[in-house]
Amino acid sequence: MNIFIILKFLGLIITAYLLGSIPFGLILTSRFTSIDIRKNGSRNIGATNVKRLAGKKLGIITLAADMLKGAIPVYFGCALSNATGNYDATWGQIGLSMVAFFAFLGHLYPVYMKFKGGGKGVATAAGCFFVLSPMASFTALLIFILFVCCFNRVSVGSLAATAVLPPAVWKFSGSLIITEFAVIIGILIYYRHRENIKRLLAGSEPVM
After folding, report:
1. Which of 55, 71, 106, 199 has CB 3.0 to 4.6 Å from 205, enough for a Cys bridge?
2. Around 70, how many Cα atoms within 13 Å sit in the side-chain half-sphere?
């Protein structure tokens, strides 16, 4: 990559972080309800807590918005890589992974909320990987649906889908770089779900 392509990717990385930082769940519930989701339910700004506190409609909109803020910058990263012939090159994959990572990081540690109170990152990560590796994402989605249906808990589905994502990415993309990125994302998602894991082990995790 030449210096101009690097600068474009840096600009896209910054944009991805700023977009990822937008707390759609908080914005929607503040606009259409009197509920402060930061102080109610699981106190999480993600779609699951929005659905529980503000209803299915706002929950679905939040889910879609959180996925799009991962998918959109990665899509433009792919377009940039394709335009420069670097999509399959090592640096192109590193650039795409960095764009996706900072969109994801923005959701976890949003600058607009002083780096606190972010979500758990599942929806934003899903948006990223639906662009990076569609078949791997579809596989993870099937696992998510299966486990949610079996256990009636979104956290179980999220953790199961996160666990299957890296091997699925490797199988369908063959990219070591993107697979390693999926592992890093998975570790962070599990870390953000540490309280859910404790409740699951204690048998006190709420159902859907």
Report:
1. 199
2. 25
Cβ atoms within 10 Å, residue 111: 13
Handedness of CA 158, 57, 21, 197 (dihedral sign): negative
Neighbours of 49 (CB within 10 A): 24
Nearest partner of 158 among 189, 187, 129, judged by Cα: 189
Tokens of 39: 């102080």
88 Cβ contact partners less than 8 Å away, ≥ 6 residues apart: none
Residue 135 Cα distances to 18, 57, 90, 144, 178, angstroms: 27, 27, 21, 14, 14
What single-letter DSSP state applies at residue 30? Answer: H
- CA 98 – CA 176 distance, rounded (Å): 14
Q: Pick from 27, 123, 25, 18: which is nearest to 73 by CA?
A: 18
User: pLDDT digits over 152-174, tens only?
Assistant: 999 999 999 999 999 999 999 98
- Taking the C-alpha atoms of residue 13 and residue 74, their distance in angstroms, rounded to an integer, is 9
Rg over CA atoms, the chain:
17
pTM above 0.85, yes or no: yes
